Amino acid sequence: MVEAVQGAGVVVTGAGGGIGAALARRFAAEGARVVVNDLDAGRAEAVAGEIGGIAVPGDASAIVADAREALGGTVDVYCANAGVALEDGDLEQPVDEKSWGLAWDVNVMAHVRAAHALLPAWLERGSGRFVSTVSAAGLLTMIGAPSYSVTKHGAYAFAEWLSLTYRHRGLKVHAICPQGVRTDMLSATGSAGDLVLRPTAIDPADVADALFEGIEEDRFLILPHPEVAAFYRARAAEPDHWLTNMNRIQQKWEELR
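^ that's the sequence the OP posted. Answer follows.
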């Protein structure tokens, strides 16, 4: 058992399946009281029933007040897990601004809104934990998915900013950055996901395990695929070399399409 989460009031957004459901299950197994959020009320209720949690369905951007009430007034841990991945392809066709707006709203602004609602109470008491499900795309990129890549960079930047700004005031922040995970979202990535992500894909429970290791070690960056650290270093140290290698993958994907 991880002492830091025993008895804690935890909210997990996008928890009707995939990584979110795995996080909800793991927090419950560790003795936390868990609010399960999802746009799909049926899926939220199913997971909540399985783990003895509380279903609070709805838009992840606007559930903090309801989740706080469901937990008896206090949210100790907030997992900003809900996200959208769109296979935009490229910019040679007209830009779908609605899709870009949706990606920005769900992948970034939902995190901003939640933190804004939670921070006053956390800072007053000197403790709180914000968990952001980012993706390795937030550290690197993802071929065929410009809106996902850009907004996940934004999600990572926001988590980083939260940590550096408030860590001395008791806020713990974790940014989870996996590559492929065997979820519906991976299936929706199509041929690009098949090429880049599926060969090394892991189970959602493995992501939850990585987060809890990070909580115990008090680490900001959570890498369920450890090799991402080397890719991230290469990107920073030799950006042109890294971009050339990524472009080769892009060309291979174009041949497969």
